[in-house]
Amino acid sequence: ETGVTQSPTHLIKTRGQQVTLRCSSQSGHNTVSWYQQALGQGPQFIFQYYREEENGRGNFPPRFSGLQFPNYSSELNVNALELDDSALYLCASSRREETQYFGPGTRLLVL
Amino acid sequence: GENVEQHPSTLSVQEGDSAVIKCTYSDSASNYFPWYKQELGKGPQLIIDIRSNVGEKKDQRIAVTLNKTAKHFSLHITETQPEDSAVYFCAAGPYYNTDKLIFGTGTRLQVFP
What we know:
The structure holds two protein chains of two kinds.
Chain A: E1 5-7, E2 10-13, E3 19-24, E4 31-37, E5 44-50, E6 53-57, E7 64-68, E8 74-78, E9 87-94, E10 101-102, E11 106-110
Parallel strand pairs in A: 2-11
Antiparallel strand pairs in A: 1-3, 3-8, 4-5, 4-9, 5-6, 7-8, 9-10, 9-11
Chain B: E1 4-7, E2 10-14, E3 19-25, E4 32-38, E5 45-51, E6 56-59, E7 62-67, E8 72-77, E9 86-92, E10 102-103, E11 107-112
Parallel strand pairs in B: 2-11
Antiparallel strand pairs in B: 1-3, 3-8, 4-5, 4-9, 6-7, 7-8, 9-10, 9-11
């Protein structure tokens, strides 16, 4: 098991609502990346945070936003939820430019 | 755009046999190639990785080979065990180690006793 934790484990929301997912990185890691994994698919890169700033972004709309805190933990915020946002959201932490270690994920269901 | 293709999508083997999963990537700037194992209800777990300056890497029953000219890399599992059953993902990174990883679509491996 990695030292990356995520909360909550499961979440149900309705279309149009907003959601915040949280990630605590492994001790010693200063970089956090967020991925979306749809059912039966590989993870897709959303964005990465390093030293509290966004450092790279995948093909996701602006309603996906994030934060990184001084203790390197991170939040993923999704506004105006759509049905297609239903997925497993994964957080991965690393030292800068080193191997990424994934947390267990938060499963989001949008009804 | 950047893309990683992974084959096969499912693979069934008898315990003790070998399993091979293959990936092809499109971005010639990719330099880092990790493999992850994902069990049901869990996040992906790194099992082995390789960098572009190395052609092959082995860790006990697991090995990865890389052909940068052909943009191919493969995972080899020998002496498979039932606990190897999981979904395996390959990925490619555009820089030396991390930044944005592009994942393949996954291979569901079933090892029958």
